[in-house]
Amino acid sequence: MSSHPTPPASFSRLSLTGFLTLLLIALMMGANHVAARTAFNHGVDVVTAVTFRSSVTAFVVALILWQQKVSLQLSGRHQKNLLLIGALIAVQSVCLYSSVARLPVALALLAFNTYPLLTAFWARVLYGHRPERAVLLAMPVMLLGLALALDVLGAASGLGAAQQWGQIGAGVAFALAASATFGLALVITQHEAADVDGRLRTFTTMTTVAVLAAVVASTQSGFHLPTATAGWWGLGALTFLYGTAFTIMFTVLPKLGVVGNSAIMNVEPVFALVLAWAVLGQSIALMQLVGALVVVATVMWLGLRRR
C-alpha cells in the first residue's frame, strides 16, 4: 500500500464519494507497482524508481504546502523523528520494489500487507502496548492465507517446497522486510509525530527518501534508465500514479472525512492481481487466489473494526 505512515483516525460515516475515492487510491497504488515491474523488466533498477517517484511526489506536496500556506515550523524532537521515519520509509520503499521485481506483483503486496501484525509487535517492544485481542485472532488467519497465497509448500506449482522457496525466498524476504520497516515507521509516527501536519510529514518523508536513494545511486553505478520505450512508460506511470495517489490522499480525503476508513485501500493487492494479469500476463493458482482473499479480508477487518 502507501509508503507513508498515517496515524489512526476516528471512524466517520463513509459516503459514496469517499468510498469511490478510497478505491481509486487503491487502484492507483496497485497500478503503480505493476508499472514498476514493467520498468524493472526494461532496465530500470529499484533505486532509480524510488528516486524518481519520491522526488516528484515531494515536489508536488511542496507546491501544496506553498499554496495552502502550511507552517513549516518543527520542533527539534519532530525534526529528529521525521528524519528517522524518512529513513525507514526509504528502506521500506527499496525493499517493497525489490520484492515486486522478484515476485508476482500481487503476492509481493500480500506479503507486505502483514504490516498490521508487525505494527503490533513494534508497539509492544518499544512502548509496552499489549496487542489487541483482534490482532491476536487475526494473526493465524492472515498467516494461513499468506501461506496459501505464496504456495509455500510448492503444491500449486508442483515444484515442492525446496524449489518453490528457491524461487520466492528472496522476494518474500524483501516483502517482509518492507512490512517490518513500515510497521516500525507507523508506530514511531503515531507516538512521536502524530501532531505534525500530514502534508508536512509527507513532504519531509518523501524528501528524505529521495535524497537517500539519490545518494545510494551516486555511490553505485548511477541511475539505471529504461532501455526500451515500455520502460519509460513504466517509470513515468509509476511516478505519476504514486504522486497522484498521495496528492489525493492528503488533499481530498481530509475534506471527505473518511481517513478512518482508509483500510478499504487494502484491496490494493486485488487490483494489482487483475492488472498484473492483464498487463504482465502474471497469474496465480486458485488456491493462491483463495489465500490472497483471506489476507485482504483479514487486513480490512482489522482496519474497519470499531474501536
UniProtKB/TrEMBL annotation:
<feature type="transmembrane region" description="Helical">
    <location>
        <begin position="168"/>
        <end position="188"/>
    </location>
</feature>
<feature type="transmembrane region" description="Helical">
    <location>
        <begin position="106"/>
        <end position="127"/>
    </location>
</feature>
<dbReference type="InterPro" id="IPR037185">
    <property type="entry name" value="EmrE-like"/>
</dbReference>
<feature type="transmembrane region" description="Helical">
    <location>
        <begin position="82"/>
        <end position="100"/>
    </location>
</feature>
<feature type="domain" description="EamA">
    <location>
        <begin position="17"/>
        <end position="149"/>
    </location>
</feature>
<feature type="transmembrane region" description="Helical">
    <location>
        <begin position="134"/>
        <end position="156"/>
    </location>
</feature>
<protein>
    <submittedName>
        <fullName>EamA family transporter</fullName>
    </submittedName>
</protein>
<keyword id="KW-0812">Transmembrane</keyword>
<dbReference type="Pfam" id="PF00892">
    <property type="entry name" value="EamA"/>
</dbReference>
<feature type="transmembrane region" description="Helical">
    <location>
        <begin position="230"/>
        <end position="251"/>
    </location>
</feature>
<keyword id="KW-1133">Transmembrane helix</keyword>
<dbReference type="InterPro" id="IPR000620">
    <property type="entry name" value="EamA_dom"/>
</dbReference>
<feature type="transmembrane region" description="Helical">
    <location>
        <begin position="200"/>
        <end position="218"/>
    </location>
</feature>
<feature type="transmembrane region" description="Helical">
    <location>
        <begin position="286"/>
        <end position="304"/>
    </location>
</feature>
<feature type="transmembrane region" description="Helical">
    <location>
        <begin position="46"/>
        <end position="66"/>
    </location>
</feature>
<dbReference type="GO" id="GO:0016020">
    <property type="term" value="C:membrane"/>
</dbReference>
<feature type="transmembrane region" description="Helical">
    <location>
        <begin position="263"/>
        <end position="280"/>
    </location>
</feature>
<feature type="domain" description="EamA">
    <location>
        <begin position="171"/>
        <end position="302"/>
    </location>
</feature>
<keyword id="KW-0472">Membrane</keyword>
